[in-house]
């Protein structure tokens, strides 16, 4: 799966090399939960796949950082339906709020995602933070490291005592470490201890 940020769509490249649009309408930005081409995005920028999904369908789910909509969206790869997994369900300016219910959570330009079987990790670029959403229970969102639009920096520490500077790319290894690219450094975030 690939995102075309400037075209506002998500595409799938098959084994034969065939490319098919799975969600969004090319060159049409917006914020709308629906199936396939009827769903609308605004600068989708990062994706993560959860094998087996987190819903009752059991299908793989494609989670999308919908950057300019300040939201995390989810697409059922079987049926193609899109819904908002965290953040507002219609466009709102960026903000910073952890918690539950998930529609009350606020992001500011979420850009990159990484997922384990139980947790989604989010580069919340405009908030200089790494956030997480657990798939079990309420799906509450919390801050793993950094936090707040007025708190950019480069300080190692634990949790919100650490400072990050516009984290914008991320990968996760098998030992639970996140490797985060920020303005001028690569940082390591330990997801259990939340040490940066």
Summarize the entry for a quick read.
The protein has 196 residues and is mostly beta strands. It is 0% helix and 38% strand.
Describe the structure in your own words.
With 196 residues, the chain is mostly beta strands. 0% of the residues lie in helices and 38% in strands. It contains no helices and 14 strands. The chain has strands at 2-4, 9-13, 19-23, 44-50, 61-66, 71-76, 82-86, 110-115, 119-124, 129-134, 141-146, 169-172, 177-181, 186-190. The strands form 4 sheets. Strands 4-5-6-7 form a 4-stranded antiparallel sheet, with no helix packed on it. It has a 4-stranded antiparallel sheet with strand order 8-9-10-11, with no helix packed on it. The chain is globular.
Task: Supply the number of helical segments.
Answer: 0
Helix % is: under 10%
The termini sit apart by 30 Å
Beta-strand percentage? 35-45%
> For the largest beta sheet, what order do the strands appear in spatially?
4-5-6-7
Total DSSP E strands: 14
In the predicted model, the low-confidence regions spanning at least 5 consecutive residues are none
Structural class: mainly beta
Biggest sheet architecture: 4 strands, antiparallel
Order of helices and strands: EEEEEEEEEEEEEE
Radius of gyration: 16 Å
Average predicted confidence as pLDDT = 91
The shape is globular
